[in-house]
Please model this.
Amino acid sequence: MTPQDAYLILNAADGIGPRRARALLDRFGSPEAVFGATASELATADGVGTKSAESLLRTAESFSPEDERDRAAALGAHVVTPAEIGRAHV
Model:
């Protein structure tokens, strides 16, 4: 999983807004590391909890970052995440 893929999944997950995404990135150190964690480990991040952690992992299984990039390209846009602008966090 690339950093951009991980950011796109974080953005797409129900219950994970900017505050929870920041908490996950602070807790695990990188967007990719978030997806190496179990639901119980994710739930330990400040404000995340079990419901949001499980939602995030379900999204990781079903969401296609490639499809998201394709949708952006079809609109004449491209995806930019903190990974592309050299920032480590949202």
Remarks:
- The chain has a mean pLDDT of 92.
- The CA atoms of residues 18 and 66 lie 22 Å apart.
